[in-house]
């Protein structure tokens, strides 16, 4: 029998009203929202359920909100008795994966990602850095183009290796614009500027990483009960102190999502279940391997079909 991985999305998947049905129907899910409100000292649950969308999109709100919704859905799904062989998350989603694997207590995680979002917003003033999704480019050629532009004085780096033909670059506004202008040199078709508040997963975020490191030192990291595939290495990690350091590195290092999925496939994983709104990650996985089974846990309604399909395996 094939293996299963639970995957958790990152910033960009958030939606007003996410996980509200789980909150209303499942006590374990409601408790997650209660803990989030209590630990953060404001009604995050109200922002998640009612918006406005503009406030939900602010990095310091998005990060705890998406973590809360994803873990509420995960807690509700636990009642099915289905357990994963591995967990993984994309950028912010790695924190959801760490909660699901027992490394971090949810209350600690929601506090950390609120601070992480604030540090990221503070580090680069709005408009001075950016990100763009490059479509169709060769990975090595795009890396070489980024090095060329950086050496010319405008820092830009690979930030998210998402799937074949989709790589996000990050850096100074000028660096990202230069990649967009010269994208065909790397075999790319076009570059799409992303609506983000900073150059995430680039070396411009090292100050934010240093601040996050101080925050993480005060938090207990337990050994993973389920192997967590780390963004920075695309390999499984178990030990708490190693996970803590990788979370610091993750702030300014590329997210190796394509590599992580490739490693999971090598281990015999054939079922990917995404927890949270939207279907960004299952969409990326499909572009990496069309043969795997993909499921989205984004509402209580989705539980029955997913459970039925998995039990029929």
From TrEMBL:
<dbReference type="InterPro" id="IPR024925">
    <property type="entry name" value="Malonyl_CoA-ACP_transAc"/>
</dbReference>
<dbReference type="InterPro" id="IPR004410">
    <property type="entry name" value="Malonyl_CoA-ACP_transAc_FabD"/>
</dbReference>
<keyword id="KW-0808">Transferase</keyword>
<dbReference type="InterPro" id="IPR016036">
    <property type="entry name" value="Malonyl_transacylase_ACP-bd"/>
</dbReference>
<dbReference type="GO" id="GO:0004314">
    <property type="term" value="F:[acyl-carrier-protein] S-malonyltransferase activity"/>
</dbReference>
<protein>
    <recommendedName>
        <fullName>Malonyl CoA-acyl carrier protein transacylase</fullName>
        <ecNumber>2.3.1.39</ecNumber>
    </recommendedName>
</protein>
<dbReference type="Pfam" id="PF00698">
    <property type="entry name" value="Acyl_transf_1"/>
</dbReference>
<comment type="similarity">
    <text>Belongs to the fabD family.</text>
</comment>
<feature type="domain" description="Malonyl-CoA:ACP transacylase (MAT)">
    <location>
        <begin position="7"/>
        <end position="308"/>
    </location>
</feature>
<dbReference type="InterPro" id="IPR001227">
    <property type="entry name" value="Ac_transferase_dom_sf"/>
</dbReference>
<dbReference type="InterPro" id="IPR016035">
    <property type="entry name" value="Acyl_Trfase/lysoPLipase"/>
</dbReference>
<dbReference type="InterPro" id="IPR014043">
    <property type="entry name" value="Acyl_transferase_dom"/>
</dbReference>
<keyword id="KW-0012">Acyltransferase</keyword>
<dbReference type="InterPro" id="IPR050858">
    <property type="entry name" value="Mal-CoA-ACP_Trans/PKS_FabD"/>
</dbReference>
């Amino acid at each position: 029998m094939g293996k299963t991985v639970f995957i958790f999305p990152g910033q960009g998947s958030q939606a007003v009203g996410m996980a509200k049905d789980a909150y209303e129907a499942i006590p374990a899910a409601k408790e997650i929202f209660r803990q989030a409100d209590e630990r953060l000292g404001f009604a995050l649950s109200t922002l998640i359920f009612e918006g406005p969308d503009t406030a939900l999109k602010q990095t310091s709100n998005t990060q705890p909100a998406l973590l809360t919704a994803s873990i509420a859905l995960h807690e509700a799904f636990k009642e099915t008795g289905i357990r994963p062989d591995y967990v993984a998350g994309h950028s912010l989603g790695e924190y959801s994966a760490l909660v699901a694997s027992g490394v971090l207590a949810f209350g600690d995680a929601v506090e950390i990602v609120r601070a992480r979002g604030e540090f990221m917003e503070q580090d680069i003033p709005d408009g001075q850095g950016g990100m763009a999704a490059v479509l169709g480019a060769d990975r090595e050629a795009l890396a070489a183009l980024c090095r060329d532009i950086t050496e010319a004085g405008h820092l830009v780096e690979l930030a998210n290796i998402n799937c074949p033909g989709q790589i996000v670059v990050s850096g100074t506004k000028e660096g990202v614009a230069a990649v967009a202008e010269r994208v065909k040199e790397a075999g790319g078709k076009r570059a799409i500027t992303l609506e983000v508040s900073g150059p995430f997963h680039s070396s411009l975020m090292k100050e934010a990483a240093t601040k996050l490191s101080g925050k993480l030192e005060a938090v207990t990291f337990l050994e993973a009960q389920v192997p967590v595939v780390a963004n920075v290495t695309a390999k499984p990690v178990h030990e708490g102190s190693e996970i803590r350091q990788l979370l610091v590195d993750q702030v300014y290092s590329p997210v190796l999502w394509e590599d992580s999925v490739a490693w999971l496939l090598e281990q015999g994983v054939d079922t990917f279940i995404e927890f949270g709104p939207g279907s960004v990650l299952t969409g990326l996985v499909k572009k990496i391997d069309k043969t795997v089974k993909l499921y989205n846990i984004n509402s209580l309604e989705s539980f029955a079909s997913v459970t039925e399909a998995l039990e029929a395996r």
